[in-house]
Amino acid sequence: MDAEHGLARPAIPSSFEALLEAEPQVLESKRVFQGEVLSRRVKSKHLTFCTLQVQSDEQDEHVALCFAAALVDESQVPSPTRRNDLPVGLQIEVEVVRAPRFRPEFLVRRWRRAPDGGSPVVETGAHGVSMARCLALKDQVNRRAKALLGGDGLALCKRWSGCAAGSCSEACEFRHYFQSAEEETKARHARCARERSQRLQAQEQEEYGEGPHEKVDKARRAARFAAWLVKTYGREVLSSGRGVLDVAGGQGDLSWQLSVEYGIPCTLIDPMVRRGGELKSWQRRALRKRGREQAFEHLPVTFELNTSSRWTWRTRRDGAGM
């Protein structure tokens, strides 16, 4: 958005040639900067923003850069697509142009690491790289960059920004004010989205008559589901014919519960054969205590649609009972 007139800026052109057609005078604004990266924000693989500290004769200057992949000449160095491509503290040299119609920042045409500088490097000792030393050095660089950018460096309090003002305790160490209108708008949108989600959840609970409940841990889900099947359909129905067909049942947790705990015949169909077709050690012990040799049948096959439009099984490996 154009902050002065409230008008939306057009999208960045798809190539530097298209930019020249739209703004022929853009080459007249070409400049070259060399400085230290103070901050960077990677929006996507095609768009990255950066704040550069440029040292001049009079005073240091903060320059805002925009790396648009469509405009960067990648014959030398590609446009940064990850945060690690443009670390804080890195010394870079950039060739930029100005096109205020499209972006308020300088648009990067070419860039490279400065020949006389680079990002902080941790020396490798006799025992390899010290991670503690590496992280401490990164923290030092980040603190210096925040000090150069100005501001108190405090992060916004999520509880304060997500609720009514004054809802957080006085002992909170985070910031209880907005630094910009953009930050306030972002917090308001997040709060509205959360409130909308809570309203929808309340409506669903009222409609279906179910209140909030705790999710059962993964290890007990098969037991709960097996108990629900037995309660809903009964053992007689589930045991009729050849029993239950457990399709894509993974390692057979449900089949184990039905066949061992409830005595219901089960056939597991899953193409993956784990542990060479052997049961887990605790499962083998459980079978020995029950005087059984087999829990359920495992068919390592897949369902496929053949030319006659009928579902068939294709065996990947000879099936073995489990």
Backbone structural class: alpha/beta
Percent of residues in β-strands = 15-25%
Please give the radius of gyration in angstroms.
31 Å
- Helical proportion, percent range: 25-40%
Largest sheet entry: 5 strands, mixed, barrel
Indicate the low-confidence ranges by residue numbers.
1-6, 315-321
- The strands making up the biggest β-sheet line up spatially as 1-2-3-5-4
Strands, count:
11
The backbone outline, from C-alpha atoms, is elongated
Arithmetic mean of pLDDT:
79
Total of DSSP H or I helical runs spanning 4+ residues: 8
Question: Roughly how many Å apart are the termini?
Answer: 64 Å
Question: What labels describe this entry?
Answer:
322 residues, alpha/beta, OB fold (Dihydrolipoamide Acetyltransferase, E2P), 3 domains, 5-stranded mixed β-barrel, 4-stranded mixed beta sheet, 8 helices, 22% strand, disordered C terminus
How is this structure best summarized?
This is C3H1-type domain-containing protein. The protein has 322 residues and is of the alpha/beta class.
Descriptive account of the structure:
- The strands form 3 sheets. This protein has a 5-stranded mixed beta barrel with strand order 1-2-3-5-4.
- The chain has 3 domains: 16-113, OB fold (Dihydrolipoamide Acetyltransferase, E2P), CATH 2.40.50.140; 159-207; 218-321, no CATH class.
- Strand 9 and strand 10 (311-315) form a beta hairpin.
- It has 8 helices and 11 strands.
- The chain is elongated.
- With 322 residues, it is α/β, with parallel strands linked by helices.
- It has helices at residues 16-22, 131-149, 158-162, 181-208, 218-233, 235-239, 253-261, 281-290, and strands at residues 31-44, 47-55, 60-68, 91-97, 106-113, 244-247, 266-269, 297-299, 301-305, 311-315, 320-321.
- Mean pLDDT is 79; it is low at 1-6 and 315-321.
- Helices cover 31% and strands 22% of the residues.
- Helix 5 crosses helix 7.
